[in-house]
Structures are given as structure tokens and as C-alpha cells.
Amino acid sequence: MSASLRIALLLIAATFAGCGAPRPAPEALAKPRDAGERGFTGVFVPIGSFEDPAGPPPFQNTRWPANPPFTDWGAAESRRLTDPANLKVCSPNGPVFFMSEVGIFPLQFLEAPDQIVILREASGMPRRIYTDGRAHPEDLEPSWMGHSIGHFDGETLVVDTVGLNGQARAMNGVGSNARVSEDDAKPRMPSSEQLHLVERMKLVANGELLEDELTIVDPKTYTEPVILKHYFQRRPDIDMLEYYCNENPRDDTVVSGSTSK
Amino acid sequence: MRAFAVIGIAIVVAAAPSLVAAHHSFAAFDRGKKVVLVGVVKDFQWTNPHAWIQLVVLASNGDRTEWGVECGSPNMMARTGWKKDLLRPGDQVVVTVNPLLDGRPNGSLVSIQLPNGTVLGPGDAPPPKPLGSITTR
């Protein structure tokens, strides 16, 4: 048996020996877990909860505008997405919803030499931000997450995303609807294939928070840019879990109960 | 099935909405009404996008009604104290729900009291850490 094979087998054995064991305290784990050349690598939980969507001061999420600057098409599309018949409950998030939900599902940032990948626990598809200097392709095929390129402006990662297919859920809520009863009365925020998203991501609060300023330009849907800031807290104590949206696709409006003597 | 120690359904009108939601609108539920159900667990589905409790409730007239109770996602629940084996068939529990607006026996979980007295919610974001408490590099 070669030395490299023995090492590989030992690594496999060590891996399986760890299954089911309690997770070590974050301090006991290797530091690269939260390093990365730019300090972005790690698990981050969005600030805010259903009870407090903005989160505590001083770093607070921007709420969506109460009166969005809709075009005629945007207003009609917003109304269309309010109809439960148009629910798309397990369709992909799109890049804005991906980055602007409250803290129920963490994100994981991973830095590679040529790209930064962002995973979202509840999303089957990652965001992939190319940082190798490439431009957007000229013959871009429209897609759910679009095409993202990024570069660093000092410590700030500037991300430019185009090439959306316009089919994602409303940007401000799940299943093309908003997420809590309070928001059910609020306008859905659609996006179209004309969406051009520019983000400025940077670490703040001594690296404990990641700030993402989203400038949403979509002339088919909005007469002016919509700008939001969202914050994500670094959480080395949290591991990403699985989420398969179609595992148990019960509908809350379908009868699930029955009465008998 | 274990005997019902307490019978009935209590309806409480309250202004505060419950907050369970993950992947769809909860407009079908009456957020202004809370119904307290005392019943026996028939089934606990620890599944995404939502966990479900099937609960058999005995009314004073002898009717047995099976309610479907929608929880948050297991991911949200696990981060706020839940485990998949906290509920077992036969457990007697006290469940508060926002009921469906159309009156069918189906509700969105507000809170549940387990047989050991523990009270849990429907799942939410993990409690945030105070700034300054996280090792960054």
C-alpha cells in the first residue's frame, strides 16, 4: 500500500469517526473556516427576524419602500404576484431576494482564486461572482440568478449582475408573496429581465458584519433605482443545513383535517 | 391512544400575529384569532419546507377532529430549540394556532406546550449574537 493511499484511508476513517460526534466549539476549529484572502469566507446569518425585520441598531436593514416607484408594467405585475393563484412557492429566489431576507436561512461565502461563491441554505442554486477580470458575455443566456462579475474597490467587493430571466419570485417575499401577515398587505416587488443589480459588499463592525448595499435598476418595473442595505452577521457557531423545498409540498389552503365520532 | 385529560377548543381573539412563514404567504390564516387546541399527536412530519403536526382534538360533543398544524421549516425550528423526536404519536399537547379563515381544521402554529411543559414557537431566525462577541479572524 502506498504512503499516499494509507494517508487517504486514514483521512476517510477519521472523517467517518467524526460522524455523530458533538461539534467542537468554534474556538477549537481551524481558523481558515472564517478566513479567506479578503475575510469574506464564512457562514453569515442575515440580520433581522420576523418579529424585528430591520434588526437592532446601529446596523439595520432598509425596509422596502411603502410606495414603490412602479412603472405601469411594474404595478400590474405586482398585483399579479399578489394573487395566490400565481404562487411560485418553490421557484428560485433571484439575487435580490437571496440577499435581502431576514435571518431564518444563513448564507455561506466561499472565496476561490477566480470567484466568490455565495450559498443560501434555502436556495438550490448558488450565486457565483467571477472576480478574475472577465466581462459579462455578449450573448448571455438569461438565467434565474443572472451573471455576476465582481472586483474589489479597496476593501469593498463591487458586484454587477445582469442576465436575469425575470421569472424569479417577488424580491421582497417568498413564493411570490410577502413573508408575514404584516407584509401581505404590502406591494409585491417584482423584477424583470431588465434587472441590473449593483452591490457593494464590505465587512463592518470589525468584520463581525457584512454589509451589502443593493442598487436595483429595472426600468421595465421601476421608474427609479431602489436602494437597500442589508446586514449579515458572521456566525462561526452555525453550520449550514439542507433544505429541499419539495420534500413535503402540502398546501396550507388544502384540507388536512377531518371530523368523526 | 392516551386518554384526553382536557377536552376542548378555546378561541382567543388577539391582535398580535404569529410569525411562522418560510416559503409562502400566510394570508389564508386568520392572524387576528388564536385557537387553543388540546389534543393528541397522531403524526409529526419533520419535513421541509414546513413541519406539520397532525393533532386529534376531542370536542365536548364527542366529535374527534383531526387538525393539521403548520410549523416553520425544520431548519428554523432546530435553531430555536426543536428536535425531530420532541413530538411522538400519542403525546398530549396544548397547541395555539392561527386558524384558516375558511374554518377548516387547519392552523398556523403560534406555540406548543409539550408533555414535559416546554413551550416552543414555530421556528424563527437563530437568536443574534451581541456585537463584539464573535471572533472574526
Describe this structure as you would to a colleague.
The complex is a heterodimer of chains A (261) and B (137). Chain A is 14% helix and 25% strand. Chain A is α+β, with helices and mostly antiparallel strands and 261 residues long. In chain A, strand 7 and strand 8 form a beta hairpin. A nine-stranded mixed beta barrel of chain A has the order 1-2-3-4-5-6-7-8-9. The radius of gyration of chain A is 21 Å and the shape is globular. Chain B is globular. In chain B, 4% of the residues lie in helices and 36% in strands. Chain B has one helix at 74-78, and strands at 9-13, 33-45, 52-58, 64-70, 92-99, 106-113, 119-120. Chain B has a five-stranded mixed barrel with strand order 2-3-4-6-5. The chains are: A alpha+beta (261), B mainly beta (137). The interface between A and B is large, with 65 and 52 residues. Strand 10 (258-260) of chain A pairs antiparallel with strand 4 (64-70) of chain B, so a sheet runs across the interface.
Mind sketching the topology for me?
The complex is a heterodimer of chains A (261) and B (137).
Chain A: H1 3-17, E1 42-46, H2 72-82, H3 95-100, E2 107-111, E3 115-120, E4 127-130, E5 147-153, E6 156-162, H4 181-184, E7 196-204, E8 209-217, E9 226-234, E10 258-260
Chain B: E1 9-13, E2 33-45, E3 52-58, E4 64-70, H1 74-78, E5 92-99, E6 106-113, E7 119-120
Parallel strand pairs in B: 4-6
Antiparallel strand pairs in B: 1-2, 2-3, 2-5, 3-4, 5-6, 6-7
How much helical structure, as a percent, in the residues of chain A?
10-25%
Unreliable stretches covering 5 or more consecutive residues of chain B: 1-6, 14-22
Q: Specify the number of helices of chain A.
A: 4
Strands of chain B, count: 7
One letter per element, helices H and strands E, the order of chain B comes to EEEEHEEE
Measured as a percent range, the helix fraction of chain B is under 10%
| Sheet of most strands of chain A | 9 strands, mixed, barrel
SS class of chain B: mainly beta
Tell me the radius of gyration of chain B.
16 Å
* Class from secondary-structure proportions of chain A: alpha+beta
- The residue-averaged pLDDT of chain B reads 84
- Count of extended strands of chain A: 10
Distance between the termini of chain A: 70 Å
Largest pleated sheet of chain B = 5 strands, mixed, barrel
* Bulk shape of chain B: globular
